[in-house]
Amino acid sequence: MKYQTTPLFAIPLFYTNIGTVDPTTMAWIERLEYPDEAAGHEHTEDKYILNQPKLAGLKTQIQEACNVFVKEELKVNDDVVFELQNSWINKHSKDESNSLHWHSNAMLSGVYYIQNEPGAGDIVFQKSHLYTNLFHDTVRVSYSEPAQYNTGEFYITPRSGDIVMFPSHLEHQVTPNLTTTPRYSLAFNFFARGTVGGGTSELKI
């Protein structure tokens, strides 16, 4: 039988590698203060860390990657741009992880992996029970094997220099760091600016 199945209304996940930071920048990152203010890991007190002059080049690379995602993949009109908002560095020592969460007050979010050795943890994306692409959670159908349409979670094992971007509502978590080398990642949020809609639905944001 010849047939075709189309993945309607998919959630986009952008994934590429933009290279690692230089040794001087890495040493600066390691010397930063990481207050114990998050459950399961630490992150910088500065929540706009990409505004630091030391990270100016990295900020430009992240913005360029976002532009590719937004303009070339999502086909957003040129009268709308996505601007970087807040950003911070996460530090995961041995056995530390990050629980399931999403990013509020943002439209696109992402993670840049500053240092992620093999075994330092995966990022796991999970389908919300509010998102019904197949069957509603009222009845949990069993499957013979995971496939594109029935999976409820998706794992990425990142490498140093990788960057992932996704809609901010997409739930995700980080598995434990099983190594003795700290894992450093930089999280960030983007928000749209410009004019959207038209007529009585026009909005400037």
Secondary-structure blueprint:
Blueprint (H helix, E strand, L loop, with lengths): L13 E4 L5 H9 L10 E2 L12 H18 L6 E13 L5 E4 L6 E8 L7 E4 L26 E4 L5 E6 L3 E4 L8 E14 L6 E2 L1
Antiparallel strand pairs: 1-8, 2-3, 3-10, 4-9, 5-8, 5-10, 6-7, 6-9, 10-11
Features of this protein?
4-stranded antiparallel β-sheet, 205 residues, 13% helix
Evaluate the radius of gyration. 19 Å
Span between N and C termini?
50 Å
- The residue fraction in helices comes out at 10-25%
Series of secondary-structure elements, N-terminal to C-terminal: EHEHEEEEEEEEE
Shape: globular
Q: How many DSSP-defined strands? A: 11
Describe this structure in words.
- This protein is an alpha+beta fold.
- It is 13% helix and 32% strand.
- It has two helices and eleven strands.
- The chain has helices spanning 23-31, 56-73, and strands spanning 14-17, 42-43, 80-92, 98-101, 108-115, 123-126, 153-156, 162-167, 171-174, 183-196, 203-204.
- The chain is globular, with a radius of gyration of 19 Å.
Summarize the structure.
Helices cover 13% and strands 32% of the residues.
